[in-house]
Structure formats: structure tokens, C-alpha cells
UniProtKB/TrEMBL annotation:
<keyword id="KW-1134">Transmembrane beta strand</keyword>
<feature type="signal peptide">
    <location>
        <begin position="1"/>
        <end position="34"/>
    </location>
</feature>
<dbReference type="InterPro" id="IPR012910">
    <property type="entry name" value="Plug_dom"/>
</dbReference>
<dbReference type="Pfam" id="PF07715">
    <property type="entry name" value="Plug"/>
</dbReference>
<keyword id="KW-0472">Membrane</keyword>
<keyword id="KW-0812">Transmembrane</keyword>
<dbReference type="InterPro" id="IPR039426">
    <property type="entry name" value="TonB-dep_rcpt-like"/>
</dbReference>
<dbReference type="Pfam" id="PF00593">
    <property type="entry name" value="TonB_dep_Rec_b-barrel"/>
</dbReference>
<keyword id="KW-0675">Receptor</keyword>
<keyword id="KW-0798">TonB box</keyword>
<dbReference type="InterPro" id="IPR037066">
    <property type="entry name" value="Plug_dom_sf"/>
</dbReference>
<dbReference type="GO" id="GO:0009279">
    <property type="term" value="C:cell outer membrane"/>
</dbReference>
<dbReference type="InterPro" id="IPR000531">
    <property type="entry name" value="Beta-barrel_TonB"/>
</dbReference>
<feature type="domain" description="TonB-dependent receptor plug">
    <location>
        <begin position="68"/>
        <end position="182"/>
    </location>
</feature>
<keyword id="KW-0813">Transport</keyword>
<keyword id="KW-0998">Cell outer membrane</keyword>
<dbReference type="InterPro" id="IPR036942">
    <property type="entry name" value="Beta-barrel_TonB_sf"/>
</dbReference>
Amino acid sequence: MSHSNFRIAKSAMGPATVSMAALLTCMIAAPAMAQDRAGVAAPQGAQQSANDSDIVVTGSRIKASGYTAPTPTTVIDSGAIEANAQPNIFTTIAQLPSLQGSSGTAVNTFSTSSGQQGLSSFSLRGVGAIRTLTLLDGQRVVGANVTGVPDISLFPQLLVQRVDVVNGGASASYGSDAVGGVVNFITDTRFKGFKGNVQGGISRYSDNEQFLVQLAAGTSFLDDRAHLVVSGEYADEKGVGGGDFGIGLAGGRDWFKQTSLIDRGAVNDGSPRFVLRDYAQAYNYTKYGLITSGPLQGTAFDQNGNPFQFNYGSGGVPARDGTSNVRNCFPGFCLGGDLSGNVDAGRTLQSAIKRVNSYARLGYDFADNDELYFTFNFGQVKTHNTPVGGMNKPGLTIQCANPFVPASIKTACATAGITSFGYGTSNAALGNTRVDTDRRQYRGVIGAKGAFNLLGTEWSYDNYFEHGVNFTAIDVSNILLTNRFNDAINATTLNGSIVCASATARANGCQPLNIFGGNPSAGALSYIMPENGPFQRTRQTQDVVSVNFSGSPVELWAGPLSIAFGAEYRHEFYKVRADAYGMGSNFAPNTADYPFDPTLLPGGNNWYAGNYKSGGGAYGVKEAFFEADLPIINSDALGKANINGAVRVTDYSTSGTIWAWKVGGTWNLPVDGFRLRGVTSKDVRAPNLSELFAAPVTTTLPNFFDPFTGRNVLAIQNSIGNANLRPETARNTTAGIAFSGASWLPGFSASFDYYKIKIKDVISSLGAGDIVNLCFQNVRPETCSAFNLNNQQGPNFINVQAFNLASIDTSGFDIEASYQWQRPLGLPGSLTLRGLATHVSKFVTDSGLIGTIPVDSAGANLGNTPDWKFLAIQSYENDKFSLMVQERWFSDGVLGHQYVVCQPGSCPASTNNHPTIDQNFMPGAFYVDIGGTYNITPQVTAYFKVDNLLDRDPAKSPYFVNPNLYDVIGRMYRAGVRFKF
């Protein structure tokens, strides 16, 4: 079906029809199909703009009729986005098999301090979001986190015309970060009319309620020379909160089995060192308190503080020998028994998120082929999550004389002749911590683009200036101050009243805390968990000036030589401010909200979690690029071929000059429908603001071993950024064959592409011991400047920072195919079948540290890169309705390739690099989604979508669950109405 015929059929169906036929091109590699501009297939199902030819398609800066880029590019059009019916466009794009390790609202929910809760960012090829460049209309977007990655939730989504995904390095064309590839959102800049979308959703567990309203309008005036487009949206996803303590998840989800990978500690007894077990019960704390050592070990307390004998499970018997060991159990864990104190069930499964987006674009055609434009968008995203249930506190010591100790326990202490005992509690009585994140983004762009004639040659240009600001506020509530907690539980009796034993603590407001049971006083809670909890306030700015030109100045034997060239300047800045208790009074003034307290550590790190720091930094980037496409063959006998190359020189204010390049080509074979393509490139990623200028964290190492002297020394550990970091460099290679447009097989397209990425000088953090030992062994001399353990001018110190030490080596291949059948079996309409698959052959990470070996995580389903991942869609549509079935699948895998599987009596000695384990399997998953539309009128369409139709539960995991691969929500129902006038 030709592009022009498609538009005729679409017009006949009415503007409100959801185009299932449009899904023919969705997610099919662009060069595998007929090209009509800048190396990408015309996005069927998307409304065509008058100046579509001016849109730069990701993967190349060249604009030339008939040009085909050698880098595989997947196109997702507006019809496919609508058919997937997600409240956030991020989810639709993240389903592509080549996107591995992207973060969304179900990821980072266990986090308190990362600042990435609810952040929607893409990761291509599993190499991380920091190595995937995300653009809006070919332009950079200010980061929503100090790592520099943007938040897709802040993008204007209703006006997105298509999304181009480049599956390969593109640094030579687009600059730093395009190591795994590029994701480019293209908006409809000439939309006319009024359209909207209203959607609601809920899970089968009656939670994760969702509501979405999107509106957009466009018009032209001043004799059709001025064009105004505006949009706005509001989205509210309630998320899925944590359950209660124990193993009961939110909404009655019953798949959680408290699976744990238990380290037996034995390395050469003939049995596996690690064992994977369900219903693992930690025996050093319980929900409302447990005596964990001494003669009274095994005595637990209920909510009212009444003692009872704890049920350890697996026949566990407390050793009562002065240790916390329990006989008949694994080290640290029993199986079964009383699981009511487990904290994992309390964590959020999916962060709640509220989004508000507004966008406006005003363009003016000051000549027939030239436009001056201005865009502004404001977006705000609020999220919240609970990292885990309670605030687990094992390893406490309680005095028998503590007035809160029940009388029967005091008597037992006297009988046993002890004055104190070990104690552990998950602190269920204190409630759960909550993390609230608020991101606000302001972004403005002013630019000019168009075409001009110079010396008889048509040239196009696209120049712009962008200024973006992102404000991030993180607030943690209901969290304890560790020293205040320790003082509050150490109670005594004074003048007939129960008070804190420390006079200093009493003078600063200490209120005693009854740690036995679940009834703390309001005064104690207010003291250990003040209303003003940890906070962080971050301001990030990005300024970009970019000029780009493209043209075909010379006609050669096989066609025109096309070139593109340009330059860019970028400035990135951030500043972060944190609270005094987390940062430390040494670095922050005394305030009414955070008054000075001598019981707290002046260096900070006083909170149970969320000890944010203050800091800041900035860097500048100057770069220039040149790209050329040289046609070399154009004949009926040999086909049509071209060579494409690009080079970019970049100067970073922090690390100097580096070059990126690419060379590749395409060959349309003389065999009808076949095309070969390939490209190899050097790509770069510069260190981001967080790596260069991390906010400092200071801790004390009282007995640090100095290998130079063989003695233990007192040292200060400073966790800081490293301004001497170099850019990472990558060698990217792709090669493949594509088939489409054959006269003998109309409607069928397919492609196969091999890829290989080798990244060197990967930026990774090191521990204090690694830094010192790498210098001592003269393996990494650059670490020698990071410490001084014989400092005559002040305290000994070790600056813990990132270095360019690690490497990543990954390879695999993509397979994509699509077939469209007009009037199947004589029925009106069309049937479309398509599938995409990615196979990861290897994903080897080498830490660069002494004593470690490279680890291959391909097929390790605890991570992001399963062996196989595919997406398949079958859809039928006619003038009145459409139906779609979608399958998502990834293959079975392992916990990790480093493990040696063996059974008791047959295990070799377990080593750090090759530990033994009793089972090493994680199943894959198969999900089915269905959806459909019904055209109420030519302008109004109703639709529905059901995700995870079979309500497939996630696989058990020793780390709760892996939301990067598995669906943790269950079956989701969505329905809505779209309209367009």
C-alpha cells in the first residue's frame, strides 16, 4: 500500500479513526521500507504536516530526497501510540525489545535517596539511560536528574506525531550520550483543529486508578503564515502502595513468597554456599521486637508489649550462647514460622504520579520556505513512594533496668544473672517512611529553519537556542534520626518519671520511647521523627546554541553528494541544597526548622536514610560536525549504493578535546526489495554533573588498613565527584539486511541487523579499599592522588570517587517483520501482522578491579538483558471498528552466570568469582494485551485496552522482584474516548 493510497483510505475512514493499518510501519526499521525523506519511512497513521520535509530524522543530519541512512531506525507513529492506550507515552516506547533497563514508575520504588523515583527515562541496548540520548524535535532537553537524563513524563504527549528510535551509536551526528542510540520525539508543528483524549483505568485488584485528560488545538492566521499550536494534559496515576508487614502485598496480591538467596558461609563442605529458599524469615528482628541474644533469646513482644515465645520456623531453636545464632536454621534466616515482621511487603510496587503539561508553539513563515518559531513548555511531575515497611533496627542493646521492660522480663533477667540483652525490631509502631518528589521543568526554544539557494544549490538550515530549567524537590517524611532514636530507647527513671538516660539528650528535648510493642507516645515520635524530615532542592539549567546546514552541492556519477555540517555550544549547571541534619551542621547554618542538637553528628548522616548533601557544578561543551553521503552505484545491473560518513570534534571544559566518527553505507541490491546496510562508529559519553561534581559525603573509618605500613589507621572518607574524569568511548558496529517493497510480495517487510558495542573507560565508583589497593599494587596509578594516609597537615583522608576503569562489551541482533493484508478473506478493511525480536548474545561487564573477572549478564533475568525479548502485534480494522492483540515475551534465564550449580555432596570449593549455588533459574514471562476501538461518529472514537490479560504474576526473585522485566501490577483495564474536530 503506497503512502498516497494510505492517506486516501485514511481520509475515507474519517479523521477520528484509530489507524490499525498504520501499525504496518510502527516499530519496523525505517530503512527497510520505502523512503521519502531523511532516511525514515513516512509515518503512516500520523497527520502529515505541510513542512514534514523540514523535520530532521534521528540517525542522520542529512536531508536529501531518496537518502537512506545506514543505521537501523524504528518508527512509532501516532496511530500505534493511540492503539497502545497508555497514560504515559513512555510505556509504549519502552516495550520495544531493543530498550532494556529503562526506568519508569515501577522502578526505583525501593529508593529513598537516589532522586530517581518516578523518573521515566530510556535505556537502549541495556547500557543505561545515561548512554541514551533523548531529544524533542531533534533538540536536547534539560535533565530531570543530575545524571542528565530527561523525564519523558514532562514532554507534551498529545502532539507527538511519531517517535524515531535509532538502534546504534549516533554521537558523530548528535553528540555526547548517543552511545546506545537516540530516541527522538517529533511533534506536529502545523496541527489545525481541536482534539482531545479522556481515559480512565484500574487494575483487577481495584487499585492503580488512572485518569488522563489531554487537549490540543492549532490554527493559522496572517494569510496562513502564522501557526499557533497549544496543548495541555493532566494525568493522575494512583500507583500501588505497599502492603502490611509479613508477606501480604497490596490488593491481595499473593505472588510474594519472601524468596531469599541465603549465604550459608561454608565454601568447601561439599554443599552449595548459596541456597534459594521461599518464606525466609530473618531471625534478628520481628514486627514489635525480639530478644536476639542471651539467655532470653527467642522472646518476642506483641503490639501491646506482652512477651511470647517466637516461632522461628524450620525447627529453629535459639542458641542462647551469647550469640544471635539459631540452631536448625541458615545463617541469618529460618524458613516459615512467624513472618509477620517481614518489611519487604511494605514497599511500593508502583509509584503514584501526577503530571501536568502545557505546551505552545508559535511559528511565522517570514518567507515561502523560511520559518521563525518559538516554543515554550512547562511540565510538573509529582510522585511518591514508600521504600520499605518500617525502619528495621537489629543489633540493639537494651538494659534490663529500662523501665519499659515488662516485669516478667526483668524477673527473668535477674534469674539469669544478666543486666542487658540483644534486641531487634522492624519498628512497625513507627509507621512507614514516604518519599515525595516534585519535578518542575521550564523550557523555551527560539529558532529559525528553512531553505535558501546558494550558487544554484538548495540548502536547508535549522538553527535554535534553547534554555531549560528543572527544579527538583525531594521531601522524606516519617523517618527517624538515628542518634535521637538511640537516646530515646535508653530510658531510665528519675524523680519517679520515665526519662531519657542521657542528660544532654534530655536538655535537648528527648522523650523516652517504649520500644516494646506498638504504642509509642506522641512526644517520643515527635522527638525521633521531627516534622521537618530530610529534603533536597536541586536546580538544573541547560543552555544550547545550535546551527545546522544541509544540502547537495555537487551532482556526481551516481547522484548528488549530500552534506550536513554545523556547530553547537552547550552549558550545563546544577546546584543542590540539603537539610542540616543530613548534610551536617558543619556545612549548614542553624535554622528554626533544623536547630542545633549536640546529640547529632556535626558531619551529617543523621537520618535513618535520605542523608542528602549540598553541592553544585557546571561545564561547557563546544563542538562541530560534518557529515556526507556519497552515492557510488546507481544502475539497473548493480543497484543503488551510497557511503555515509560523519565526524565530530568536541571540546569539554572539564576534559578537553575528543573526536567521534562514523562510516557506513547502504546498498539497494538489484534483487527486487533487498537492501544491505552497515555502519561502524566511535561514540562518546562525557561524564555528567553528578559524576564530576557529586555533593560530598563524609564518614569516619576508625580502623582502616593501610597496606603501605601494614597498620590500621583512622581515616576520613570523602565521597566526592571527580573533575578529572575522561569521556567514555565506544566502538559501535551494526550490519544487516532489509527487505521491503517487492513487487512479488506486496505488503511484507522484514529486516535482520547484527550489533556490537564495546565501551571503554566506563565511569564507575570505587570503594575506599579498592582505591588504596589499586595504587599500592601499581595497577591504577591515577588512584594514588585520591588519598593520603600519612597526612602531616591534617587528618588522613580517602576521596571516594568515580574513575574510568570499567568496560562493557555487548552484542546481539534484531529481527523485525511486518505483513499487511488488504480485504482479508474478502472482508472489508485490513489485517496487519508484525513482530520485533532482540537477542542479546553477550553483555559482559568488566569492573577493572583486581581479583574480579568479567561478568556476562546476558540471560540473567535479575538484570535488564534477557537472552530473547519480543513484541508481536496482530490487528484488524475497517471503517467502523478495530481489534488488536499484542504479545510481549522474554526468555527463561538465570540468576547469574557466575554461579556453579551443584547439589549437597557433589559441590566443588566455592570461590568469590565462581560461587556454588543449589539452583540458578529464573523463568521468562509471556504477556497478552488486547484492545479495540469503535467509531461513534467520524469525529469521536471510543476505545478500550486490557494489559496482562492473563494476569501473569512476576517470577520469584531473591531481591523481591525485577520490575525492569516483570509486570508487578497484574491485569489493567483502560477505556476512553478520543475526539477531533
